[in-house]
Design brief:
This protein is globular. Helices cover 34% and strands 22% of the residues. Strand 10 and strand 11 form a beta hairpin. The N and C termini lie far apart (66 Å). It contains 16 helices and 23 strands. The chain binds adenosine-5'-diphosphate.
């Protein structure tokens, strides 16, 4: 059989990608679906939109390469994480829209639980923080606020799942209610030390255990597609949350291996091996994919504004018409001319966690032009990544020696070279930047014998290396100025700020 099919169910679109034996992309289809924002701070998806956009993308990509399901050896699923769906086991009907990871409606519930002093327990068991981002309070909200849902849940009539779980339940016509460990580890309900749904956590959040799916490994056959529309009879053999899938897609399978995905935001993950470790640097600990059926952990840090700073220059400042043009504009000046750009448009994420930090451009003078600001914007992406990677180094006590990169903004050579120079380590960019989908394909292909080992896959990959300039002094000075600028941006939007 010629292909492995990866379904990449993202926040704004569902994509289906066929990978061939060489790990190359044979075809891509992408179907967008509606975003629903009922109130400020709320974000929802219709679960049926998620399903139909994903199934139609799968059919579409097969059509594009004139393949049938018989040409597909296995199916891998990667998905937007944390987004919560609850549905009726008998009818398959969702009880409400999916509550998306971005949704902040449960912030008061998180604050109340923090006041009750449960955060340390939650952290020790899950590696996460009490934040609306994760699934548990979203499920609790449905149980509290949608008529009859708690009673139905207590009677065992309902099922909960993250998006992987919802897709597989539908692809198998309700035969399989499963999720993998990487997705489970984002719910706030899975004990990642003891490897099970945690009774204490289920009690803390008031969630009946009967809702929870069976937890499987990221790389194993869990069932076959029987749904009429789609890749019929293909084995479902890979599942991973998007960031863990990208970590695996970059073959970061050994402790110390790290990747950064440069998309709208930036996500850094580092494999830390088989030992659970809590971050002292305000990062989260999460489960990574394993093909060995054993627990493997990763540290994770997320940056809210990465490539989005380039979108802002394009759409709001109108500096250029297309994102890739930023490279020639920024490359038109020898340096940022002393300008430092802190793109804290929505506060700062890891490792600063300051919701009140403000966006800021400082160091402007009479000579400052759009080239300098564009360059400072590109550099701000790299500075933020350096903040997170340095926090990871402090946590692990080991200096990471190579950063693997992917995502749309990783195509920018200027950014990649600056990243390498700033970190003083090598940046490794694979030929294919679609690591998220590729990870799901690798997981499914390895489980079904399409590929026999990670080593075999490694041989199929091409890469471009960006080596760090040897002299450090200038970069160290620049990094100190960045840190000073960040301090000035922090707290600016605090409601009781004196200014
Ligand atoms: P996402 O999956 O989050 O939508 P992508 O991986 O598709 O993101 O990357 C798109 C982001 O990368 C956008 O924010 C865009 O502004 C940015 N981007 C695209 N090309 C470049 C480039 N050459 N240089 C810098 N940023 C870029």
């Amino acid at each position: 059989m010629a292909y492995v099919l990866a379904l990449d169910q993202g926040t704004t679109s569902s994509r289906a990608i066929l990978f061939d034996q060489e790990g190359n992309i044979a075809g891509v289809a992408q179907h967008e679906f509606p975003q629903i924002f009922p109130q400020p701070g709320w974000a929802e998806h219709n679960p049926v939109d998620i399903l139909t956009s994903q199934l139609s993308a799968a059919v579409d990509v097969l059509g594009k390469v004139s393949a049938t399901p018989r040409d597909v050896a296995a199916l891998g699923i990667t998905n937007q994480r944390e987004t919560a769906i609850v549905w009726d086991r008998a009818t398959g009907k969702p009880v409400s829209n999916a509550i998306v990871w971005q949704d902040r409606r449960t912030a008061p519930m998180c604050a109340r639980l923090r006041d009750e002093g449960v955060e340390d327990t939650v952290r020790a068991k899950t590696g996460l923080l009490l934040d609306p981002y994760f699934s548990a309070t979203k499920i609790a909200w449905m149980l509290e606020n949608i008529d009859g849902v708690r009673a139905r849940a207590e009677r065992g009539e309902l099922a909960f799942g993250t998006v992987d779980s919802w897709l597989i339940w539908n692809l198998t016509e309700g035969k399989r209610h499963v999720t993998d460990r990487t997705n489970a580890s984002r719910t706030l309900l899975y004990n990642i030390v003891e490897d099970r749904w945690d009774k204490d956590l289920l009690r803390i959040f008031g969630i009946p255990a009967s809702l929870m799916p069976e937890v499987v490994w990221s790389s194993e056959e869990v069932g076959r597609v029987t749904a009429a529309l789609g890749p019929w009879d293909v084995p479902i053999a890979g599942i991973a949350g998007d960031q863990q899938s990208a970590l695996f897609g970059q073959l970061c399978t050994k402790p110390g291996d790290a990747k950064c995905t440069y998309g709208t935001g930036c996500f850094l993950l580092e494999n830390i091996g088989a030992k659970f470790r809590l971050s002292q640097q305000r990062l989260v600990t999460t489960l990574a994919c394993s093909t060995q059926k054993r627990l493997e952990y990763a540290l994770e840090g997320s940056i809210f504004i990465g490539g989005a700073v380039v979108q802002w220059l394009r759409d709001k400042m109108r500096f250029f018409p297309y994102a890739p043009v930023v490279e020639s504009i920024a490359g038109g000046v020898p340096d940022a001319g002393g300008v430092v750009f802190v793109p804290a448009f929505t506060g700062l994420g890891a490792p600063h966690w300051d919701p009140y930090a403000s966006g800021m451009i400082i160091g402007i003078g009479r000579d400052t032009g759009i080239g300098h600001i564009a360059r400072a914007a590109i550099e701000s992406i790299a500075f933020q990544v350096a903040d997170v990677l340095k926090a990871m180094d402090a946590d692990t006590g080991i200096k990471c020696t190579e950063l693997r990169v992917d995502g749309g903004a990783a195509a920018n050579d200027l950014l990649m070279q600056f990243q390498a120079d700033l970190l003083g380590i090598r940046v490794n960019r694979p030929g294919i930047l679609e690591s998220t989908a590729q990870g799901a394909a690798y997981l499914a292909g390895l489980a079904t014998g399409f590929w026999t080992s990670v080593e075999e896959i490694a041989k199929t990959r091409s890469e471009r290396l960006f080596e760090a300039k040897p002299e450090r002094a200038e970069m160290d000075r620049r990094y100190r100025r960045w840190k000073a600028a960040v301090e000035r941006a922090k707290g600016w939007n605090q409601p009781d700020a004196q200014v």
